């Protein structure tokens, strides 16, 4: 009986220990799970247009947040024989102006002692800005070739295998992101070049306005940048470069006519935003660009064409193009009229604020012209 009782007691103890172990494992699992959930942020909540500085800044802070053994770090980007510091966490921000020369290439993740002083050839010139670490993890970032390295500086603790796995997942995500970004920028360049080819076609077709679309796209993208609308730059560039593409559907006898246009001829010219939209829309994914083009001759007061939209009904991007388009048209000569001086064109814009032009955009554009000394004094 006693023997049975003892055996039972031992079994109970064993079971209790196993349960405790299970609880610890469950807690660890929960912790890992929540970390992986956080990692999905790196994929889902990041725009492909984010600057590399911001992306890597985010990535480093995620590493520090998720893995307690990491205290700080930096990201090095390969530029020829040098590596530029593109992001730092914990080290001096002044490093962002520096480059490092590495004495060795790393192909896979490696834990390295005294990485900075041992593997950076020009360490002496950087050491005041580097917060030296006894141990670092060097993680290669690869796209088609080596992009650079993430350096994670460790506290003097053993880094667990599960955490190395997490680091691998995160750096793979980063490498994939860089790859997508590269493909995205190649695609963007292709579209940019295609848009430019069409822009040149309009220039050939209507030589009197040669250079107009190129200048409009420069002014429009600059204005979008100035007002902090980085997210629309791409669309603004494509739409402004192509805004007059609909002119290809208007007979040259009308476009190049030196005499005053008849009412019918004017109506024909006024079709170009709609024709432009029709043409551009044939490209998949260009519906929005088409819309912007369609409305670039609307007026803020609703008296424009083709749809007579009023104020904010007009797409914001179209309103940007309207003001810079008008400025360029006024300051260049056309077959039927001379050009206005820049100062006179500015006065026209001021006069038409809230009538033809969005008042806010008109003000911002005038500010830009003044800052860039396009004019002396208005
Ligand atoms: Fe136009």
From TrEMBL:
Stretches assigned to coiled coil:
1-35
Q: Which UniProt keywords apply?
A: Coiled coil
Chain ranges of the HD domain: 209-330
Q: What protein is this chain from? A: HD-GYP domain-containing protein
**Which SMART domains does the entry mention?**
HDc (SM00471)
Annotated organism of origin? Marinitoga aeolica
CDD domains according to UniProt: HDc
Q: Which Gene3D superfamilies match?
A: Hypothetical protein af1432
PANTHER family from the xrefs?
CYCLIC DI-GMP PHOSPHODIESTERASE PA4108-RELATED, METAL DEPENDENT PHOSPHOHYDROLASE
Signal peptide positions are none
InterPro entries from the entry? HD/PDEase_dom, HD_domain, HD_GYP_dom
Superkingdom, taxonomy of origin: Bacteria
Is Cytoplasm included in the keywords of this UniProt record?
no
Q: HD-GYP domain: which residues?
A: 187-378
């Amino acid at each position: 009986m006693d023997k049975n009782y003892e055996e039972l007691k031992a079994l109970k103890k064993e079971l209790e220990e196993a349960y405790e172990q299970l609880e610890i494992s469950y807690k660890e699992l929960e912790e890992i799970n929540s970390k992986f959930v956080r990692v999905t942020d790196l994929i889902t909540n990041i725009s492909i247009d984010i600057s590399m500085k911001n992306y890597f800044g985010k990535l480093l802070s995620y590493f520090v947040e998720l893995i307690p053994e990491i205290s700080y770090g930096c990201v090095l980007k390969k530029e020829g024989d040098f590596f530029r510091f593109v992001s730092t966490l914990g080290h001096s921000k002044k490093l962002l102006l520096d480059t490092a020369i590495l004495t060795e290439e790393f192909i896979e993740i490696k834990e390295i002692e005294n990485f900075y002083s041992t593997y950076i050839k020009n360490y002496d010139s950087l050491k005041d800005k580097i917060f030296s670490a006894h141990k670092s993890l060097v993680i290669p970032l690869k796209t088609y070739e080596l992009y650079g390295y993430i350096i994670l500086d460790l506290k003097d603790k053993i880094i667990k295998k599960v955490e190395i796995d997490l680091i691998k997942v995160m750096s793979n995500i980063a490498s994939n992101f860089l790859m997508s970004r590269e493909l995205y920028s190649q695609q963007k360049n292709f579209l940019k070049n295609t848009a430019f080819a069409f822009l040149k076609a309009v220039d050939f077709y209507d030589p009197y306005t040669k250079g107009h679309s190129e200048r409009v796209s420069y002014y429009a993208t600059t204005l979008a940048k100035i007002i902090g609308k980085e997210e629309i730059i791409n669309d603004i560039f494509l739409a402004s470069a192509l805004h007059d593409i609909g002119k290809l559907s208007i007979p040259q006898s009308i476009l190049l006519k030196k005499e005053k246009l008849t009412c019918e001829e004017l109506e024909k010219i006024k079709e170009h935003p709609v024709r432009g939209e029709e043409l551009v829309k044939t490209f998949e994914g260009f519906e929005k660009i088409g819309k912007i083009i369609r409305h670039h001759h609307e007026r803020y007061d609703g008296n424009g064409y083709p749809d007579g939209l009023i104020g904010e009904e007009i797409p914001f991007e179209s309103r940007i193009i309207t003001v810079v388009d008008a400025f360029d048209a006024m300051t260049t000569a056309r077959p039927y009229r001379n050009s206005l001086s820049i100062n006179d064109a500015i006065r026209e814009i001021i006069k038409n604020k809230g009538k033809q032009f969005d008042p806010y955009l008109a003000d911002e554009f005038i500010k830009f012209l003044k800052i860039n000394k396009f004019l002396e004094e208005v």
